[in-house]
């Protein structure tokens, strides 16, 4: 081969401009054809598209939301109703407690008032009975003095003689109780006094037992139940006599034997020794 021979090139030959232009023209023609076809299509023809049915999905969610809201409202209404019922129940309970407390207060007030009325009535009855007994004692004493024609000194002498005779029948602690009350015959009677030279009935009885080491209640009502109830036909020296009911007595004295007793009678007589027939007691209790 001649060194001047032309060597064929291995590079790809360049595409010519006319072929590129031709292809562009073909593409443009296709697009133009599509555009013309679209323009020529009927007006009422449905476009060929794929559509997601969103309205159906949206409507379902709206229904769910509506039902959820309605359920929430029902729960709220139920809770509100329950709260109202609870409040009404609490109010009713409070009103019931208040009414009960008021009823109990009124009942207690009525009970106290009734107890006070009974106590006052009993006190009046006892005072009336005591006054009646005092009047009877005065009458009997006056009649006895008038019939016997004896003086006060003679009566005192007789009482002392009787006391000496009676005291010999008592023994032990009973003898000490009898001796104590006999030693105060003639002392004054003063309501509320407990000695040493003036007494009321229960004060004298309490002191008589206190000096032998026995503690008795202060008032007649309690002294009348301070020991064992005994029959008036079975009395022993030292027994406590009482007038009135057991537990509601208004007067007490000491039985000294031989049908005699010593007691602080009243302001007009003071402490006396007298016969049971002179003022029969209602009952008796034995402490010793």
Largest sheet composition? 6 strands, antiparallel
Low-confidence blocks of residues? 33-37, 139-165
| Order of the strands making up the biggest sheet | 3-8-4-5-6-7
Please state the average pLDDT score: 76
SS summary, helix count: 6
CATH superfamily of the largest domain: endopeptidase domain like (from Nostoc punctiforme)
Order of helices and strands: HHHHEEHHEEEEEE
Q: Strand portion, in percent?
A: 5-15%
Strand segment tally:
8
N-to-C CA distance: 177 Å
The top level CATH class name of the largest domain: Alpha Beta
Provide the structure class: alpha+beta
Instruction: Work out the radius of gyration.
Output: 63 Å
Count of distinct structural domains = 2
Can you name the CATH architecture of the largest domain?
Answer: Alpha-Beta Complex
The shape is rod-shaped
Q: Percent of residues in helical segments?
A: 55-70%
Q: What do we call the CATH topology of the largest domain?
A: endopeptidase fold (from Nostoc punctiforme)
């Amino acid at each position: 081969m001649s060194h001047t021979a032309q060597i064929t090139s291995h590079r790809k030959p360049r595409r010519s401009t006319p072929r590129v232009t031709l292809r562009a023209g073909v593409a443009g023609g296709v697009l133009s054809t599509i555009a013309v076809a679209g323009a020529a299509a009927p007006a009422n023809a449905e476009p060929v598209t794929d559509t997601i049915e969103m309205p159906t999905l949206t409507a379902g969610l709206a229904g769910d939301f509506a039902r959820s809201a309605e359920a929430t409202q029902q729960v709220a209404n139920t809770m509100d109703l329950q709260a109202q019922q609870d409040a009404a129940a609490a109010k009713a309970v409070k009103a019931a407690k208040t009414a009960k407390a008021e009823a109990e207060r009124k009942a207690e007030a009525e009970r106290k008032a009734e107890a006070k009325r009974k106590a006052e009535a009993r006190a009046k009855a006892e005072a009336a009975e005591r006054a009646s007994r005092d009047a009877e004692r005065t009458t009997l004493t006056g009649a006895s003095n008038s019939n016997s024609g004896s003086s006060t000194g003679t009566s005192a002498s007789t009482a002392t003689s009787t006391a000496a005779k009676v005291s010999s029948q008592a023994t032990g602690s009973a003898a000490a109780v009898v001796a104590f009350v006999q030693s105060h015959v003639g002392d004054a009677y003063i309501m509320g006094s407990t000695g040493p030279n003036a007494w009321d009935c229960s004060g004298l009885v309490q002191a008589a037992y206190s000096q032998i080491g026995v503690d008795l209640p202060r008032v007649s009502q309690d002294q009348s139940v301070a020991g064992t109830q005994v029959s008036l036909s079975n009395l022993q020296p030292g027994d406590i006599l009482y007038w009135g009911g057991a537990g509601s007595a208004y007067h007490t004295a000491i039985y000294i034997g031989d049908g005699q007793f010593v007691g602080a009678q009243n302001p007009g007589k003071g402490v006396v020794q007298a016969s049971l027939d002179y003022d029969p007691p209602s009952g008796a209790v034995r402490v010793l």
